[in-house]
Design goal:
With about 425 residues, the protein is an alpha/beta fold. The chain contains twelve helices and 14 strands. The protein has a domain of about 240 residues: Aspartate Aminotransferase, domain 2 (3-Layer(aba) Sandwich). Helix content is about 30%, strand content about 15%. Strand 4, helix 6 and strand 5 form a beta-alpha-beta unit.
Amino acid sequence: MPATQLAIHGGPQAVRSPYRERWRRIRWPEVLRIARCMLRDQNTVADGSGPIADFERRFAALCGTRYALATNSGTAALHSAYFALGVGPGTEVIVPAYTFFASATPVLQCGARPVFCDIDGRTLTADPADVEKRITPRTRAICVVHVWGNPAAMDAFVEISRRHGVALVEDASHAPGASYLGRPIGSWGDIGCFSLQGTKAVSGGELGVAVTNDPGHFDRMLALGHCGRTARGQVADTLAIDNMSLGLKFRPHLYAILLAAGSLSRLEELNRRRRHNYRILCEGLAGCEAVRPVESLPGAEPGGLLEFILRYEPEHAGGWNCGAFVHAARAEGVPIAVDRYTRAGSRFRLLHESPLLGAAPDAALPGSALGEGVGGAPGRPPGVPVAERLADRLMTLPAFTKVPERFVRQCARALRKVARVAAERSDLRR
């Protein structure tokens, strides 16, 4: 049987090594630290002292900022950032159409409206030119997402935000340890937000953190959801609210902090391993027109790398749709899937097409700021054509951390094999 015969047609698998990720997010040192707290009957630190204060100092140092505030999720960090920057009723925040929905939904919690912008098809990050076209007198902030750990063009966004007098938020949920033009991601905007959830590079299970250089922003974030810390925890004594908060509860769990502190100490190693494996994958796919790695901007150093994203060009693979290509590649032993950010919700749509986020006015929640959609305001450029074009052209691999190099190379060869055979056989029934 020829080696070029696809596995779905009975041929041999191209990936001969089993996929086994040996990088552990939870290790014994963190378990023992949590156990010691348990033995002391301690499960929370309401005033942000001790391990929480230490973790915040370390994270601020990572990002090159003066302050860091740990929260119970990355979503809470974004909500805190929008609130601190004055996002509220009658205002808008520009958000990429290609991102996780939590980049946009906290805008709704502030009573404001997300306006979706298009992306750069090479990097999958927000397109600065398209963002600028969508700025209006109602625009309060721009949210730039370093999606999958790939830094956006922050020099351009800083210039746009200053020229128009709008705030700049970095959603760096996927990008701890990334940098752009030698400057850490998270330090470019007014506030940078990170998710430390589940499979993230720095993980506390459920955790987040916001970083900033502005003491007033820090105090306002603290006041939103950190009761027990607002009397003595403010850095500029901006707000006189005793020791209360504004009713939300965004404090981090002590055990989550202890877990994240352990993975933060290994972030440099994790990023080194993931960058190395991504380079191997890119080298293995060099010259393959059907499957192309997502590019990074000059001067950008990706970090975190939550997943390895690939662009699929069906015109170079016999016109097979993305699902068919993924099916064939998985049969070859590649742990690949169709990208999930272009398939939000049960109907598999981009965010701007979601009823919750404004595509269908009749689905808007009572009392919310929903219903106008991506091109709802008069004169605003309609649609997000680049994001829409990529909706069935993106594939995802796990972020290979501690796997054999031969496995990564075999995955690249398998993808090339499927692309080559698909180009010759446009009819899957053959």
